[in-house]
UniProtKB/TrEMBL annotation:
Cofactor: Mg(2+)
Catalytic activity: adenylyl-molybdopterin + molybdate = Mo-molybdopterin + AMP + H(+)
Origin: domain of life: Bacteria
InterPro entries: MoaB/Mog-like_dom_sf, MoaB/Mog_dom, MobB_dom, MobB_MoeA, MoCF_biosynth_CS, MoeA-like, MoeA_C_domain_IV, MoeA_C_domain_IV_sf
SMART domains given in the database record: MoCF_biosynth (SM00852)
A Pfam family matched in the record: MoeA_C
Keywords, comma-separated and alphabetical: Magnesium, Metal-binding, Molybdenum, Molybdenum cofactor biosynthesis, Transferase
Domain MoaB/Mog: residue ranges: 375-512
Pathway involvement of the protein, from the record: Cofactor biosynthesis; molybdopterin biosynthesis
PROSITE patterns in alphabetical order: MOCF_BIOSYNTHESIS_2
Described function: Catalyzes the insertion of molybdate into adenylated molybdopterin with the concomitant release of AMP.
Protein's recorded name: Molybdopterin molybdenumtransferase
Length: 601
C-alpha cells in the first residue's frame, strides 16, 4: 500500500527503489556524475534505517548538539550542513524534508528509499537475487532497470541496469517533460511541450526535436589542443583543478592585516609591508599589523583586513576607524575553486569566461571534441548566386549564408556545396560524396508538397528520409533522414522558415553532435505589449523585439509583418516569440515566452 505524494516543489522528484543488495548506491554514484555532465544539478535525499550521525565526538558542533542544541548548523566557505534532532516513532516525512531543500540550487531531487510513498520511481531489479518485483504492488514505477535475462510485462518501460547512459537519458527526459503540479498563476504553460500526434508524419515541435535527437550520436574523436585554439570548442573530459584558486589566503583590499580580537586595543604596531607576489616572513602577534596590498598573502597570525581609507598611520603605528568584523576582506585559499574539484565538466562549450577560468588554473593543453562537419547546399532553378546578375524570375540564395553563419557560430566546420542544379544525377552524386565528408548535410528548399519527390527519390535510394509536417509556423515542412551515418536536414525554402527550423531542430542536433549535454531551448517569460494571434494546435514563432520595461519586467512586441520570406523581420528582431499549441490568442498584457537570439544570430 502506498501513501499519496504531491510534489511540493517546482522541480521534479524521482525515486529509486530496490531491495538491498541490488546496487542502488553503486548505480547512483555513477548516475549522478553522468547527469552532472549533462548539465543537471542534483539534490539527493536518502532514507537511512539506522541511527546515523555525520558528526564526531570531540568536534565543536557535536559537543554543542550533545549539550542540547536542537538544531546545529555548521558552515564553511565550501559547504554547510544543518543537523536537526527530530526523534520520530515513524518514518521521516518526505514532504517536510523536501521543504528543507533550496530548490533554486537543483534541477532534480533523487530520492533513495521511501519505498512506500506514491512517488514516481525507477525500480532496480536483479534477477539473480531472487527477490520479488516492486512494480506489481506499486503503480508509481515508471521504469524498471534490470538485466537482460529478466522478463517484464510489455507495458512497462525497460532499462538496462548496467547502462548508466541509458538510465541518464530516461531521467533527463523525465526532467524535460516534468510540469510542476501547481504553477504560479501568471505563468503560461511552456510551449514546445505539447505531444499530440496527428498522423505519423504530422508532429509537434517537441516530437520533431525528440525524433531528431534520438538519431544523433555525439562525435567521439578528440584532439589535444591549447587554450589558444579552444575558443567555442567542447571540452572532451572534466577539467580538474590542479591548484587552489586563489592559491593562498589573500587580501581583497589595499589596507592593513592583523589578528581580530574581541577587545582590540589601538593603535596597532606596524611591523612592515607585504606586496602582491611576496609574503611576510614573520608571524603577527595580537596588537601588530602589516601594510598589505590587494592580492598579497595574509601573513600568519592575521585573519582580518581593514581598508586603507579607514586607517591612520602615525609614528610607526596604525589605528582604525569604522566597524571591523572578524575575517573581513580576506579571500580564502580555494574559495573560488578548490584543488581537485571539477572546474568545468566535460561537454562544456568554452566561451570567454571558461577559457579565462582554465587559464586561471594554469591549464593550457586539453582534449577537445573534434568539430562537427557540416555540408550545405541550396536547390531550386530560381536560386541564384549572390555577386552574379539576378536573372528574371529568380531570387538570390540567402539560405546558404544564414545556415553557414549559424553553423559556424556553433563551432562547426562548413563545407559549401553551392547551388545544386535540378538533376537527379548531380544531386545523387553530390549527396553521396558529401556523406563521406560531413556529419550533417543541410539543404534548403524543395521539401513541401509540390516538389518533394525530387529529393525524396534521391535520398530514398541513398539512405532513408522522412517528410514531416511540423505543427508550427513558419517552418512547417521538414525533411530529416540519414545517408549511412550522416544526418540529412531538408529545411523549407522560405528564408525565415529556414532560420526558425535551424534554431529549433538543427541547433539542438549540432550541439548534441558536438558533445554538449542536451538542454531545453532557453525560454524567458515576457509581457506581450500587443495582442498576438496563433492557431490552436500550431506553435507560432513570431519575430519579436524584447526590451526591459520601466516596471523592471521583460516586454515584447513583434517586428510587424511576419511573412516567412521577409528576412528583414529577423534582422529587426532579437528573439522569437513562441505561442504554444494550446493558445490561440495572446492579449496585450499577458505573459508569453521568448527565445532570445543572443547565443547564435
Ligand atoms: N500546396 C502547398 N504549398 C506549400 C505548402 C504546403 O503545405 N502546401 N507549404 C508552404 C510552406 S509553409 C513553405 S515553408 C514552403 C516550403 O517549400 P519548399 O521547401 O518546397 O521550398 P521551395 O518551394 O523550393 O521554396 C519556397 C520559397 O523559398 C525560396 N527559396 C528557396 N531556396 C532559397 C534560397 N536558397 N535562398 C532564398 N530563398 C529561397 C523560393 O524561391 C520560394 O520563394 O512551401 C509552401 N507551399
Ligand atoms: O512554414 Mo512556411 O514555413 O510558412 O514558410
Amino acid at each position: 500500500m502506498s501513501t499519496v505524494f504531491t510534489n511540493p516543489l517546482s522541480i521534479p522528484v524521482l525515486g529509486f527503489c530496490a531491495y538491498s543488495g541490488t546496487g542502488k548506491t553503486t548505480l547512483l554514484k555513477q548516475l549522478i556524475p553522468e547527469l552532472n555532465r549533462r548539465g543537471l544539478r542534483l539534490a539527493v535525499i536518502k532514507h537511512a534505517h539506522h541511527n546515523f550521525d555525520i558528526d564526531e565526538p570531540g568536534k565543536d558542533s557535536y559537543e554543542m548538539r550533545k549539550a542540547g542544541a536542537r538544531q546545529m548548523l555548521v558552515a564553511s566557505h565550501v559547504r554547510w550542513a544543518l543537523m536537526t534532532e527530530d526523534p520520530l516513532d515513524r518514518d521521516p516525512d518526505l514532504l517536510h524534508l523536501l521543504g528543507q531543500l533550496e530548490q533554486d540550487k537543483a534541477d532534480l531531487v533523487l530520492v533513495e528509499g521511501f519505498k512506500k510513498l506514491a512517488l514516481p520511481k525507477i525500480e532496480l531489479h536483479r534477477a539473480a537475487h531472487g527477490k520479488p518485483f516492486i512494480h506489481t504492488e506499486d503503480p508509481n514505477i515508471l521504469a524498471i532497470a534490470c538485466c537482460d535475462e529478466t522478463k517484464l510485462p510489455g507495458e512497462i518501460r525497460r532499462l538496462d541496469l548496467n547502462n548508466v547512459a541509458q538510465i541518464a537519458d530516461f531521467v533527463q527526459q523525465y526532467v524535460r517533460d516534468y510540469r510542476p503540479e501547481s504553477k504560479p498563476s501568471s505563468a503560461r504553460a511552456l510551449p514546445l511541450s505539447a505531444c499530440e500526434l496527428g498522423s505519423e508524419q504530422n508532429l509537434s515541435v517537441r516530437q520533431g526535436i525528440d525524433h531528431i535527437l534520438e538519431q544523433v550520436k555525439p562525435v567521439t574523436e578528440t584532439e589535444l589542443l591549447t587554450l589558444d585554439e579552444a575558443d567555442n570548442r567542447i571540452l572532451a573530459q572534466d577539467a580538474i583543478s590542479p591548484v587552489n584558486v586563489p592559491q593562498q589566503t589573500n587580501s581583497a583590499m589595499d589596507g592593513y592585516a592583523f589578528a581580530f580580537q574581541d577587545n582590540m586595543s589601538q593603535p596597532f604596531e606596524l611591523k612592515g609591508e607585504v606586496l602582491a607576489g611576496h609574503q611576510y616572513s614573520g608571524q603577527l602577534q595580537p596588537g601588530e599589523a602589516v601594510r598589505i596590498m590587494t592580492g598579497a598573502p595574509v601573513p600568519l597570525g592575521a585573519d582580518t583586513i581593514q581598508p586603507r581609507e579607514l586607517a591612520t598611520e602615525t609614528d610607526g603605528k596604525v589605528s582604525f576607524s569604522g566597524k571591523i568584523y572578524r575575517g573581513q576582506h580576506v579571500r580564502l585559499a580555494g574559495e573560488d575553486i578548490a584543488q581537485g574539484a571539477v572546474a568545468l565538466s566535460g561537454g562544456t562549450r568554452l566561451g570567454a569566461a571558461e577559457q579565462g577560468l582554465l587559464a586561471s588554473l594554469g591549464l593550457f593543453e586539453m582534449p577537445l571534441k573534434r568539430r562537427p562537419r557540416i555540408a550545405v547546399f541550396s536547390t531550386g532553378d530560381e536560386v541564384s548566386q549572390p555577386g552574379t546578375e539576378l536573372k528574371a524570375n529568380c531570387i538570390y540564395d540567402s539560405n546558404r549564408y544564414t545556415i553557414k553563419a549559424m553553423a559556424k557560430r556553433l563551432g562547426c566546420e562548413v563545407l559549401d556545396l553551392g547551388i545544386i542544379e535540378d538533376s537527379e544525377a548531380v544531386l545523387s552524386q553530390t549527396l553521396s560524396q558529401a556523406a563521406t565528408q560531413a556529419d550533417v548535410i543541410i539543404s534548403s528548399g524543395g521539401v513541401s508538397v509540390g516538389n518533394a519527390d525530387y529529393i525524396k527519390t534521391v535520398l530514398a535510394k541513398l539512405g532513408e528520409i522522412n517528410f514531416w509536417r511540423i505543427n508550427m509556423r513558419p517552418g512547417r515542412p521538414l525533411a530529416f533522414g540519414k545517408i549511412d551515418q550522416t544526418l540529412f536536414f531538408g529545411l523549407p525554402g522560405n528564408p525565415v522558415a529556414v532560420m526558425v527550423s535551424f534554431l529549433m531542430f538543427v541547433q539542438p542536433a549540432l550541439r548534441k553532435l558536438a558533445g554538449e549535454p542536451s538542454g531545453q531551448p532557453r525560454l524567458l517569460p515576457a509581457i506581450a505589449d500587443e495582442a498576438m494571434r496563433s492557431r490552436s494546435g500550431r506553435t507560432e514563432f513570431s519575430r519579436g523585439i524584447m526590451t526591459l520595461g520601466d516596471d523592471g519586467q521583460l516586454h515584447v512586441r513583434t517586428t510587424g509583418a511576419q511573412g516567412s520570406g521577409m528576412l528583414s523581420s529577423m534582422v529587426k528582431a532579437n528573439c522569437l516569440v513562441i505561442i504554444g499549441e494550446a493558445d490561440e490568442r495572446i492579449e496585450a498584457g499577458e505573459t508569453v515566452y521568448v527565445h532570445p537570439f543572443a547565443d547564435l544570430l
